[in-house]
Give the backbone structure.
Amino acid sequence: MTSTLANQPKERHNSLRRTMSSSAASKARRKELPDSHPARLLEAAPYFLSDRGAAYLGDSLELLRSLPSGKVNLVVTSPPYALHFKKEYGNKNKHEYIKWFLPFAREIHRVLTDDGSFVLNIGGSYNPGTPTRSIYHFKLLIALVEEANFHLAQECFWYNPAKMPMPAEWVTVRRIRIRDSVEYVWWLSKTPWPKASNLAVLKEYSEDMIRLNRNGVRGTVRPSGHVIRHSFDKIAAGGSIPANVTEAEFEDVPECMLKMGNNAANDTYTKRCKENGIKIHPARFPAVLPKFFIKLLTEPNDLVVDPFAGSNTTGAVAESLDRRWIASEAVEEYLKASAFRFDDIEKKPDAGQVLLFE
């Protein structure tokens, strides 16, 4: 999947500053920023800055604890999943996962505005040694509602057709299970009435809807009891409301089955990583996923935070949509490479700043 920033005007990103988090120049630069810039919310020096955001290297829980209460409109993230085999980006064991994640959840709840949302992408996994599925992610959802005081606004699903048939033992060797290609995307909120507008994510009307509008529809009552009114065929809204489960293809904004692969090999981020010999993050989610929820749940200049930023897809998408953003990542190599997601990295930084790359 090509980064959504690839088609954005380059002048929007012409003041990206790449500074070492320990440099005095970075701290000085932060003081020069407008009061509305998200870097002004934190005392720590950012790893790099953009016009609308700041990326931080370090412990994401400490970053959340450093943020003031009630300032974040949306947290959208994909933490390391609880897989029974270890990944290089530091996933946690199923048995400790809920205990590990709840402190993050409580801080996310605190930093959100009263009408803010928390969008969590999380995948399932198999139990070790048997062809049975773990239910850790369902337990986590219950804990997020009952212990962290979130409301479940809606559950959506990401269908990833590029996902590998794993575990191979059950799927491709013994062939007793089918491919696991769906991950959960839970939309949680601080209140039952979070800010949201599906008018921001309308998709094109189907041919059937266009035909109904042209020919008209008779009022009736379906066997299910649902009333079909004469206004059912109206298309004044400009598009149809996305469903939360569908396999339809999409161009820009997906329907809520969120059918998208994450195996892009020729996008700007991937190309630049290869050119510079920097490790590509192994578990990236596609830009369309955060884009959908940022458009649905925020407005321009709202603040979006990703505490498990990885390759910082969320920050790049937020910048392209004129949202402010904060990203946190514990692995320096991933954060370093995430700067490639921004179109026009300034070649000549201010005097005294330290370049991340020569």
Observations:
- The chain has a mean pLDDT of 75.
